Amino acid sequence: MSLAKDKLAWLTVPIMALFLLSACVGPIVTTSSSTSSTSAPGAINVVAAENFYGDIVKQLGGSHVAVTSILSDPNVDPHEYESNIQDAKAISAAQLVIENSGGYDDWMDKLLSASPSSRLLLKAFDIAQVKLPANEHVWYSIDNARTIAQAIAGDLKLLDPVGAATFDSNLQTFDQSLQPLQQKISEIKAKYAGTPVGLTETIYLYQAVPEGLNVLTPFEFEKAIAEGNDPPADTVATANNQINNHQIKVLIYNEQTVTPVTTNLENAATAKNIPVVPVTETMPPGKTYQTWMLDQLNALETALGG
């Protein structure tokens, strides 16, 4: 997914100059949605571009890590995120940085280039083994989550060899915790494979495919919405007709990439009594990666059975 261009030209100055500037000019109003965790002294400083990766790091590292997640606010459209001085400061102090990459969070690369160091950098898209065409949302694949967690644990062991046994144990626990998600996907496939559904964008394809659902929405429509563009007029007409003619059983709706076009689809589905199942790109507050995904899967299963 292509996020909006961030305004970081001023970050070409040395990072220390930014610190001095912020001290001199006083409070700065930003669009940051970042969150940070507390941990023991001497913990590994980790910055995750997205909070679902930050959550996985916390589960693996425990008190051995101090995690800052930049994209954390479910009310922030990832397409429109603009990084800021707080993000730059966090990056400058990080020993491990995790980004999705694959064109999803290019603003991270600009932050990293503005503050070169010997930090470790993990790019989830590059590590992911399951990749769909023109679709950067690799964290929605449960298999990819396992692979990415293994890579994170490996980097934590490099940075803190003493904690290796803890990281290995926590990784095993994390792997086991993914089993209910995979079981739920298998249950949905067993019950509802071939069921026609609509998607407002490409993010849910990473689960719709293994669930065996029949996605009718034109891919060109989904891709345009995912990239923050206007979908072709003929695909909009097709998506609307699929709702108006009850050709889909459920509409799966990304709550964080809302446009007038997707809002119209949501309203039309509601008017036709077609269930709308909301999904999000970033993890909602109070959730873990596992509970977030399982809640969405349960909501979808309920809607499909209605």
- Principal-axis shape: globular
How many separate domains? Answer: 2
Order of helices and strands: HEEHEHEHEHHHHEHEHHEHEH
Structural class: alpha/beta
**Name of the CATH class of the largest domain:** Alpha Beta
Provide a compact summary of the structure.
With 306 residues, this protein is an alpha/beta fold. It is built from 13 helices and nine strands. The two termini are 32 Å apart.
Structural overview:
With 306 residues, the chain is α/β, with parallel strands linked by helices. The chain has 13 helices and nine strands. It folds into two domains: 156 residues, Nitrogenase molybdenum iron protein domain (Rossmann fold, 3-Layer(aba) Sandwich), CATH 3.40.50; 125 residues, Nitrogenase molybdenum iron protein domain (Rossmann fold, 3-Layer(aba) Sandwich). α6 packs antiparallel against α7. The two termini are 32 Å apart.
